[in-house]
Amino acid sequence: MEDDGGYPFRTPVSREMKKALRKAVSHFETICEVKPQKIFQEKLQDAVETWVCVVESLNDQQLRNEIVGYQKKLNFTKEVFKSMAGKSKHTFPVICLAILDKYIRNFDIKLAEPFFKLRDELLDEFNQLLGEDGIFLYPTYPDVAPYHMEMLFRPFNIGYSVIFNILGLPVTQCPLGLGDKGLPLGMQIIGAMNQDRLPMAASVELERVFGGWISPCDIRKSSIKLTEVV
């Protein structure tokens, strides 16, 4: 599956990401002599909403209390300005999640029930689809490696990967070299429940054929002198 069909708040999957995925599909079709099945799972469009609802249900403590060790409450306004000045002890994404966590807990739990049902349906459908000998190839992220902090402005892009966290299916992230601009790209390989060996074996094969992880720049030895401390 090359993308989730499009979503108003998610970045479209780039051409080079789809190209890399198709190369992997073509390789497996050649060596396995099995016709690949292209699918479209519409339920994956609600990945982020489903992930948020399930994660919130697993934790009965507010994140704002957890990140300060229950010693005091986190002052959101103060921490946001401190973070902008580089003075906060907490990363900006964690502060944003704590703010989101506060307001999500005020919603009626009944509003989340459709997403729990969707999670269960997805799990059943993937287990039936993949069985004991199938793998699912899917983008990990819509584009090549993003700039630092860039993901903060595209939070819904994480839907491609976080949905499989709450499904509990085995996933292996497989690097597929560098894109057109010399930036790393890759995809995720998913197996059915307890079939961890399949996505790992598939990743090993793709690493052998396509070179696996490739450094986007020269890695030079550090010239820093180490001083023995007694």
Automatic annotation (TrEMBL):
**Under the cellular component aspect of Gene Ontology, which terms does the record hold?**
endomembrane system
Q: Which domain of life is it from?
A: Eukaryota
Name of the protein in its database record: Fatty-acid amide hydrolase 2-B
Q: Which GO terms describe its molecular function?
A: hydrolase activity
Please name the PANTHER family in this protein's record.
FATTY-ACID AMIDE HYDROLASE, FATTY-ACID AMIDE HYDROLASE 2
Q: Which UniProt keywords apply?
A: Hydrolase
Hydrolase in keyword set: yes
Q: Which residues form a coiled coil?
A: none
Ranges for domain Amidase come to: 12-197
Q: Which Pfam families match?
A: Amidase
- UniProt keyword annotation of Hydrolase present: yes
